Automatic annotation (TrEMBL):
Keywords: Cytochrome c-type biogenesis, Disulfide bond, Redox-active center, Signal-anchor, Transmembrane. GO terms for biological process: cytochrome complex assembly. It comes from the Bacteria. This is Redoxin family protein. Its main location: other. It holds the Pfam family AhpC-TSA. It is found in: Cell envelope. One of its GO terms (cellular component) is cell envelope. Gene3D superfamilies: Glutaredoxin.
Length: 197
């Protein structure tokens, strides 16, 4: 076999592998899918790492009721009293512990929440491993309340794109806007929220 043919065959095989890996990564985030742990995390159990196993008091309380019309358990704490008012603006970040852009966005989201107390800012952790989600928030020093969404109900009900992170702006329980763009700056988040309102 000629060397140029061999190189072409190897390039095609490599490209095929990359396409398959990319497709699997995209499917991992599909609403309603039960995704496997990322490479190197095979030992994690998505069944045993539940919200109830997270140390009580280690995470902040979540607002009572639904978020975007979806009832979800609070990630590591109980819900506080008081329902969301019809005109209350809630900024929701849909994220997952294994997502690199989420790791960059969550601290910016915390900074945004600290600078904008007029908004309720919460997260929705879209993965079955609640313990890993709480650990990431703790590692990053993010104290925002976050809900646990093991079954991807939030993304499915709001018909969100199959990516994380996704920023969702709610007025009451109604969706005002969806921004499927990762953020690294609190001012950019503020501009995106103002644009959809």
């Amino acid at each position: 076999m000629k060397r140029s043919v061999l190189i072409s065959v190897l390039a095609i095989v490599a490209a095929t592998v990359l396409v398959v890996v990319g497709a699997v990564s995209m499917l991992r985030g599909q609403p309603g899918s039960n995704s496997a742990a990322p490479e190197g995390e095979e030992g994690r159990s998505t069944v045993t790492n539940t919200v109830s196993e997270i140390e009580a008091g280690s995470r902040p309380d979540c607002p009572t009721g639904t978020v975007g019309g979806v009832e979800l358990p609070c990630l590591g704490a109980t819900s506080t009293d008081g329902a969301v008012a019809d005109d209350q603006v809630t900024v929701v970040s849909l994220w997952a512990w294994w997502c690199e852009p989420c790791r960059e966005e969550l601290p910016a989201l915390q900074e945004f929440a600290d600078a904008h107390p007029e908004y309720s800012v919460v997260g929705v952790h879209a993965d079955g491993d609640a313990q890993a989600g709480a650990a990431l928030l703790d590692e990053l020093g993010v104290t925002l309340p976050s809900y646990q969404d093991t079954e991807n109900l939030f993304a499915a009900q709001l018909k969100l794109p199959p990516v994380v992170p996704v920023l969702v702006v709610l007025r009451g329980q109604e969706t005002a806007g969806v921004v499927p763009t990762p953020f690294t700056d609190a001012d950019d988040i503020a501009a995106a929220v103002e644009e959809v309102l």
